[in-house]
C-alpha cells in the first residue's frame, strides 16, 4: 500500500483524491478541482459541496479551498450567460443552442468532451475513494476528525451521518437528530471526511446502475437503458461486465506478477540506457564545443590575418602621404629650398652659379610638376578591403546537427526479379546524403505460421543491389534504409517481387544457320533481333490481296532443352507487326528452315490464335510447336477456338513490358506469363519427344530482345560488406 501513493494523487491539487470523478479519458480528478478548472476556462459550474439540505452546506463549514476561489465579476458572468454557458433563472429552453463542455485533462493533456451536462454526466469513482481511505489508515496519516458544528473550540467528532453527510460530536449529534423527528432514524457511522453513497448512482437519473453498455462503454441505469441513445447497443447486466472485467484484470495482473524477473531485467536495461544517455550526451556536448571552438579559433586567426593586411596597407599609404607633404612644404616661401634658391640667384660668379643651379634646377622642376599635376600619393578609401560574408553567414545559420537519411524510394521501373533480384532505389530530393545502405529481404509464405527472419545485406555502396540465392516461384519482400554519421534512417516502403516459376535458361540467338539474313538482323551480342521486310515484302503485296500466304522468318535459340523446367523472358517491340514467341521441336524447326522463304509453313493457320502445328498430327498427339501471337501492341488469346473477325476485343490483351515463357519438359507443357506480375496468359501442350528449342517468328517488321541476366550487370553490381539475420 505504501508504494502506490502516486496512483492516489490528484494531478491538479497534487493531494490525495477527494470525491474523484472518472473522466471519459480514463483519468480521475477531484470534484472541486474539476470545478475550478472549468471555472478558469469560462464555464459556470454548480457548487461541488454537499446538497443544501445537508448541515455541512452552511457557509461557515464549507471547504476553505472553495472560500479562496476567485468569484467571477458581474460583467463577466453576464457575458458568459449571454454566450450560452450554464443556466440561469428565466432562461427559455431552446433559445440558445446547447453548448458542450470541454475539459482539459491535466493527466493526458487532451481536451475531453463532457457533453452538455458537463461534470453532471460523470460518475463518482467510489472504488478509488475506498482505496484512498484504506491507504490513509495503513500509513496512519488520518488526522483527528473534528465536529463540523461545534463553536470554537471544536470537539473531536465521534459519529458520522451518511444521510446528513457530516461528522458530529455526541452533543451536536443529539442536537441535530432530536427525538421524535425523522432525522432521529438516521443511523450513526464512524466519523469520516468523505461520505459515499451506498451504491453507484446514475448521474443523470439518480438511479442505481444495473447494466453496462458495451457500445458506449458506460454504466447505465434502467431509465438510460430504454432511451433512444442506447437503441441497438450491446447492453449486458453489470454482473456479467463485472465478472468479465475481473477475469481479464486478474489474468493481466497474474501475468505481470509472474514476469517480475523480466520487469527487473528491463528496468536494469533502462537504467543502463540512462547511464549511456548521460555519458553520450556529455560526449556530444564536448564534441560540439570543440568544433565550435575550432571554428572560433579559425575565425580569430583569419581576423588577425585580415587586420594585418589592412595595417600594412595603411602604413604604406601614410608613408607616401607624409613624403608628399614634405615635398610640398619645401615649396613654401619661407621654406629651406626656396630660400636656398633665392641665395643661389645672388651668385655673380658664372661658373659657380652654373654648378650650383644645375642641381637645384632639377629639384625645382620636380616641385613644379608636382604642383601643376597635383594628386595625393595614396587614396584614403579602404573599400577594396570589404568582406562579403553572406555565404558564410548562411552556412553558419544553416549549421545544424546531421540528420539521418530519409526513407529511400524504390525505383519500381528498374527493379525486377529474374535469375536474381535487381533492386534499385533513390533518396528523396531534400534528404541528407547516405554513406551506405542496408538491404533487407525475406521470403513470404502464407502457409507458414510465423514470419521468416529478415536477411540483411550491409555496407551496400551505391543505389542498387543484387539479391541472389533465391527460391523459384516465391514472393520476396524487400526494404532499404540509409546510414550516415547520424545513424540509420527510416525504412523504405516494402516492395514485393515474385521470382520466376522455374530456373532461368541463359541462351543466345543462333546466327549460324537457318534464318534469312536479308530480312533478319541479329545484334552482336546475339540477344536481340530485328525484322526488316524490305523489298520482298513489297513483292508479296499482290499476293496479300489474293491469298493468305505470307513470308515467315524464323530464328531459334542456340540451346536445346532435354529435361526439367526452364524459364526465360523477352521484350517485344510494341510497334511490331506480327511476332510469335514460343518453343518447338528442334527436328521440326530444321524442317521449317528447308521451306522456301516466300511460302508459308503448312502448319500456320492464319485464322487460329496460336501456331500449334496440330494440323499435321492426330488430335491426341501434342503439337510440335507452341507460339504466342503478338501484334500491334496486343496479345492474341484464342482460348482454344478459332479467331473470328466478329469479336476481336474479347480475345486480346495489352502487351506487357516483358513476356515470360516456362517449359516443363517432363509434363510436355509450355506456359506464357506477364513477366512483370507473373500472371499466366496462356498454357498449352507441346511435343517433348526430342530436344526442344526456344523459337521466334516474324511476319513483317518487328523486333525483340532477350531479357538480360541480372548476374551480368557487372557495371551495376555493388559491394556487399556483410550478411546477417534479423529478428
Account of the protein in words:
One of its GO terms (biological process) is anterograde synaptic vesicle transport. Residues 10-46 form the RING-type domain. Residues 404-502 form the Fibronectin type-III domain. Residues 197-238 form the B box-type domain. This protein has 727 residues and is an alpha+beta fold. Strands 21-22-33-24-29-30-31 form a seven-stranded antiparallel sheet, with no helix packed on it. Strand 18 (475-484) and strand 19 (487-488) form a beta hairpin. The longest helix is centred in the middle third of the chain and has 70 residues, at 260-329. The protein is flat. The relative contact order is 0.06. Residues 49-95, 545-549, 596-610, 612-619, 640-647 and 715-727 have low confidence and may be disordered.
Amino acid at each position: 500500500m505504501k508504494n502506490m501513493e502516486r496512483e492516489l494523487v490528484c494531478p491538479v491539487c497534487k493531494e490525495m483524491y477527494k470525491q474523484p470523478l472518472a473522466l471519459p479519458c480514463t483519468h480521475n480528478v477531484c470534484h472541486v478541482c474539476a470545478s475550478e478548472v472549468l471555472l478558469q476556462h469560462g464555464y459556470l459550474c454548480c457548487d461541488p459541496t454537499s446538497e443544501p439540505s445537508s448541515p455541512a452546506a452552511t457557509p461557515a463549514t464549507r471547504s476553505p479551498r472553495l472560500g479562496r476561489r476567485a468569484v467571477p465579476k458581474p460583467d463577466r458572468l453576464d457575458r458568459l450567460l449571454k454566450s450560452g454557458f450554464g443556466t440561469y433563472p428565466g432562461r427559455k429552453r431552446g433559445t440558445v443552442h446547447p453548448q458542450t463542455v470541454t475539459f482539459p485533462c491535466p493527466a493526458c493533456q487532451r481536451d475531453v468532451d463532457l457533453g452538455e451536462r458537463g461534470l453532471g454526466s460523470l460518475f463518482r469513482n467510489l472504488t478509488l475513494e475506498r482505496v484512498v481511505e484504506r491507504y490513509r489508515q495503513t500509513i496512519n496519516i488520518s488526522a483527528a476528525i473534528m465536529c463540523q458544528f461545534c463553536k470554537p473550540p471544536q470537539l473531536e467528532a465521534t459519529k458520522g451521518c451518511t444521510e446528513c453527510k457530516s461528522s458530529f460530536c455526541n452533543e451536536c449529534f443529539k442536537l441535530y437528530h432530536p427525538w421524535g423527528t425523522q432525522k432521529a432514524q438516521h443511523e450513526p457511522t464512524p466519523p469520516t471526511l468523505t461520505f459515499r453513497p451506498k451504491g453507484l448512482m446514475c448521474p443523470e437519473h439518480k438511479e442505481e446502475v444495473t447494466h453496462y453498455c458495451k457500445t458506449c462503454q458506460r454504466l447505465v441505469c434502467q431509465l438510460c437503458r430504454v432511451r433512444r441513445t442506447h437503441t441497438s447497443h450491446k447492453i449486458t447486466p453489470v454482473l456479467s461486465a463485472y465478472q468479465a472485467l475481473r477475469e481479464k484484470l486478474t489474468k493481466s495482473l497474474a501475468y505481470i506478477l509472474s514476469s517480475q524477473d523480466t520487469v527487473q531485467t528491463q528496468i536494469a536495461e533502462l537504467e543502463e540506457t540512462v547511464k549511456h544517455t548521460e555519458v553520450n550526451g556529455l560526449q556530444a556536448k564536448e564534441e560540439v564545443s570543440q568544433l565550435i571552438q575550432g571554428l572560433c579559433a579559425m575565425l580569430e586567426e583569419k581576423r588577425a590575418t585580415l587586420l594585418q593586411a589592412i595595417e600594412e596597407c595603411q602604413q604604406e599609404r601614410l608613408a607616401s602621404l607624409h613624403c608628399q607633404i614634405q615635398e610640398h612644404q619645401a615649396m613654401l616661401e619661407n621654406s629651406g629650398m626656396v630660400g636656398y634658391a633665392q641665395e643661389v640667384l645672388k651668385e655673380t660668379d658664372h661658373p659657380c652659379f652654373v654648378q650650383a643651379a644645375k642641381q637645384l634646377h632639377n629639384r625645382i622642376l620636380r616641385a613644379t610638376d608636382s604642383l601643376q599635376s597635383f594628386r595625393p600619393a595614396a587614396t584614403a578609401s579602404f573599400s577594396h578591403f570589404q568582406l562579403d560574408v553572406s555565404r558564410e553567414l548562411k552556412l553558419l545559420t544553416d549549421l545544424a546537427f546531421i540528420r539521418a537519411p530519409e526513407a529511400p524510394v524504390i525505383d519500381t521501373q528498374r527493379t525486377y526479379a529474374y535469375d536474381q533480384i535487381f533492386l534499385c532505389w533513390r533518396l528523396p530530393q531534400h534528404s541528407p546524403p547516405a554513406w551506405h545502405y542496408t538491404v533487407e529481404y525475406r521470403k513470404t509464405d502464407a502457409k507458414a505460421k510465423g514470419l521468416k527472419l529478415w536477411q540483411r545485406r550491409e555496407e551496400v555502396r551505391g543505389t542498387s543491389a543484387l539479391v541472389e540465392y533465391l527460391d523459384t516461384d516465391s514472393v520476396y519482400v524487400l526494404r532499404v534504409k540509409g546510414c550516415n554519421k547520424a545513424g540509420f534512417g527510416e525504412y523504405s516502403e516494402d516492395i514485393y517481387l515474385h521470382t520466376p516459376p522455374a530456373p532461368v535458361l541463359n541462351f543466345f540467338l543462333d546466327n549460324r544457320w537457318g534464318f534469312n539474313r536479308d530480312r533478319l538482323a541479329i545484334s552482336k551480342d546475339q540477344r536481340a533481333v530485328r525484322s526488316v521486310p524490305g523489298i520482298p515484302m513489297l513483292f508479296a503485296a499482290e499476293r496479300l490481296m489474293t491469298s493468305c500466304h505470307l513470308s515467315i522468318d524464323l530464328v531459334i535459340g542456340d540451346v536445346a532443352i532435354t529435361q526439367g523446367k526452364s524459364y526465360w523472358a523477352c521484350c517485344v517491340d510494341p510497334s511490331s507487326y506480327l511476332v510469335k514467341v514460343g518453343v518447338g521441336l528442334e527436328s521440326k524447326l530444321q524442317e521449317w528452315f528447308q521451306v522456301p522463304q516466300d511460302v508459308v509453313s503448312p502448319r500456320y493457320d492464319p485464322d487460329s490464335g496460336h501456331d500449334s502445328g496440330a494440323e499435321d498430327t492426330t488430335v491426341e498427339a501434342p503439337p510440335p510447336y507452341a507460339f504466342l501471337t503478338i501484334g500491334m501492341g496486343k496479345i492474341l488469346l484464342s482460348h482454344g477456338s478459332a479467331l473470328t473477325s466478329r469479336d476481336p476485343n474479347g480475345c486480346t490483351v495489352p502487351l506487357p513490358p516483358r513476356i515470360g515463357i516456362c517449359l516443363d519438359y517432363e509434363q510436355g507443357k509450355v506456359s506464357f506469363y506477364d513477366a512483370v506480375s507473373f500472371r499466366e496468359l496462356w498454357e498449352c501442350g507441346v511435343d517433348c519427344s526430342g530436344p526442344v528449342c526456344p523459337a521466334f517468328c516474324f511476319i513483317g517488321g518487328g523486333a525483340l530482345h532477350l531479357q538480360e541476366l541480372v548476374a551480368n550487370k557487372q557495371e551495376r553490381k555493388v559491394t556487399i560488406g556483410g550478411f546477417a539475420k534479423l529478428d
